Amino acid sequence: MAGAGSGFGRRTAERFAEEGATDIYLVDILQDRLELVIEEIRKRGSSPISMCFDLADADKCGEAMAKALSEAPLDVLICTAAAVEEKRFINIELESWRRQLDVNLTAYFILGRDAARSMVKERSGVILFTSSTAALGHSLGFTPYCVTKAGEVSLMKSMAVELARSGVRVNSVSPGTADTQLCTDLVGEELMDKWRKDGFPGAPLNRLATVDDIANAFLYLASDEASFVTGHNLVVDGGHTADLYEIPYPEDTGHTYA
């Protein structure tokens, strides 16, 4: 579980433990966050194996996967880590671009490739990526994030086709705006509190995605119930991307949608 220290990654690791997963590898850049997750995984009866390193380091990604595979073949690989910075396109520095590319795409490639090399020998396995609704278009101020998330979806589809005949399935989940620490860091606690209390107007279902919404999507895609699903980007966004256009009535008209 890459990106297991918080948000989607943490809750997904917990849900897999609740469903009976035995050994769960936990990857995060912050050891203090990993310690909290380790405790939760143990409470649920599974064995956590923590790996603390920066996913932007390609060599460390390869070393971590080699260590995991030296113990036993992987049944499921889930990548949820993300690097993001809000900045208008003309102000993006090369360092920021490179970091988001390294964490959001190159790490997924390395971990996915090395896991796949083992899975094809076993002729089974599931690889799952966390993409984003940002992969489907553009979000103002988030060019590198949108580009790398779109790249993840493309990578997922390429892997799904290439690995299908070896019995390996590859899919992704694209969350909408969610109640996570990452989103809070981006928009601030005050706005997040408003969305929690009053609803999130960007989604027709009028709420933020929860970590359970996304963890349950991963559980489904990893399960036998999804045995004929591969190459699919499962959008979990409360209808946000389906809502193409609403007439922008001025507030003083008093218009409300029935």
Summarize the structure.
The chain has helices at 7-18, 31-43, 58-71, 94-122, 143-163, 181-187, 189-198, 211-222; strands at residues 23-28, 47-52, 76-79, 125-130, 168-175, 233-236. It is α/β, with parallel strands linked by helices. The strands form 2 sheets. Strands 3-4-5-6 form a 4-stranded parallel beta sheet, with helices on both faces.
Question: Can you describe this structure?
Answer:
The chain starts with 6 loop residues before the first helix and ends in a 22-residue tail after the last strand. The mean pLDDT is 95. With 258 residues, it is of the alpha/beta class. The strands form two sheets. Strands 3-4-5-6 form a four-stranded parallel β-sheet, sandwiched between helices. A two-stranded parallel sheet has the order 1-2. It has helices at residues 7-18, 31-43, 58-71, 94-122, 143-163, 181-187, 189-198, 211-222, and strands spanning 23-28, 47-52, 76-79, 125-130, 168-175, 233-236. The chain is globular, with a radius of gyration of 19 Å. It is built from eight helices and six strands. Strand 3 (76-79), helix 4 and strand 4 form a beta-alpha-beta unit. The chain has a single domain, classed as NAD(P)-binding Rossmann-like Domain (Rossmann fold).
